[in-house]
Amino acid sequence: MSDSVANGGGRVEDLRLKLTSSETSTTLVSPTTPPSDAHCPLVTDPPPPLYKPGLTMSVSDGLAGTGKEVDGGEAPGMGVAMGVRTYKIRWFILCLFVLYSMSNAFQWIQYSIIANVIVEYYGVDTTLVDWLSMIYMITYIPLIFPASWYLEKAGLRRAVLIGSFGTMVGAWIKVGSVARNRFWVTFAGQFVVAISQVFILGVPPRLAAVWFGPDQVSTACAIGVFGNQLGVALGFLVPPAIVPTTEDMDLVGQRLSIMFYGVVALTTTLFITIVIVFREKPPTPPTTAALTQEETGSYVKGIVKLIKNPGYVLLLLSYGINVGAFYAISTLLNQVVLAHFEDASEDAGRIGLLIVLAGMMGSVVCGFILDKTAKFKLVTLVVYLLSTFFMLGYTFIFRLNQIWLVYIMAAVLGFFMTGYLPVGFEFAAELTYPEPEGTSSGLLNASAQFFGVLCTLADGQLLAGFGDMAANLLLVAVLIVGSIMTASIKEDLRRQAAHGRTAGANGATSM
Hints:
Elements: H1 2-20, H2 89-109, H3 115-122, H4 126-154, H5 156-175, H6 183-196, H7 203-211, H8 217-242, H9 249-277, H10 288-293, H11 299-307, H12 310-340, H13 345-373, H14 376-397, H15 403-417, H16 420-432, H17 437-466, H18 468-487, H19 494-510
Organism: Scylla olivacea
Subcellular location: Cell membrane
Family: Belongs to the major facilitator superfamily. Feline leukemia virus subgroup C receptor (TC 2.A.1.28.1) family.
């Protein structure tokens, strides 16, 4: 122990000499920052804006931050171990992302949930209205690869800025689509917003890993996904409440205008706030695992490693099936409900809202359970099996012709099916560590969009030709396949192992 302390002191003394040498001007740079932005203050600099004073590291204190013990070994790429800690502003950063994600997700479902009104107002068929939802999925598949690469190379701030800007621009374009002969304008606006989502869906695990400690990372990821779910929930609730089912097309046009301008006000405010406030990363990483992860190889090599990981490939397919089925349910919900209950557009919206609200609760509960138990495969499999079971119940509940029973079954289905989203993200991060979360989650979302398009197209055809039971039974069948794939995944919790090694090293150092 005495030798270890002596050697650690020697390294600190050497670094102090290098920093104070008149011949050398050195800036300590955290490896997460791209070279064009990278600047972590010298130990004598004031703390960065928006961070509490007293959180800067002191070399003479052994890089212990504000008194926390730090591993005495060398961090990758650094001549001395760096301190790790969290900052209170992380919660504001997360909240801002949640609102931004919400504003984008709202626009995904805002047309499909009032499909009957949109069909009548613009004079188009239901397939074109379905495409206003599916355009989100189609654009995501080819764009997620460059977007994930950009997230890894340019960082969180730049990716979020681009996404929030596109979300705002798309909302402004839709303002010009109120005339009944301008369906193509509303489609163009939806296309821009759809492109912007590629800078959203892969962010939650990355943001959680960069800003939050090991005991909060799953919860933070769940909250990040919560923003997307919240947007979908409001997308189910608000459009039917604003835009009525009526033969007065002038009234419909006025209400559509109100909805479009409301979205513009929100997205513009959020973009300005993000420009001013959103930060790339904290001055010091929250975990040693986060620090180590920043030394991974190129994006292409990372993709190759992921594809060669059999556990991840199985999760990639099973995640895509589960979330793709959810996309199909959401897109066709209005049509399914109206097939059994006339003039129930608002009920369809409330059912969709209930699905997502229950899913938000499921996301938080599952994230909390993961943080407390670290039983990633068990939680993932149980949630998947219950999603399949209640999808079967949802299929047959319409036959009872009691809409209150549909509400209950939809809520239970939403708790597990939507609650699965952050569980899949976090399980993927565990299986693929130390590859960047943005890459693994980006591929998961690409899989979800691919299966979402397939399920929506197939379900739409079955719904039109054979009714909703055939359409929903197809989703039950694919979920059974996904459950089998999930059960076949070998649990290899690499990130948890990294946290364990760090804790062990810190314990040995403090002895």
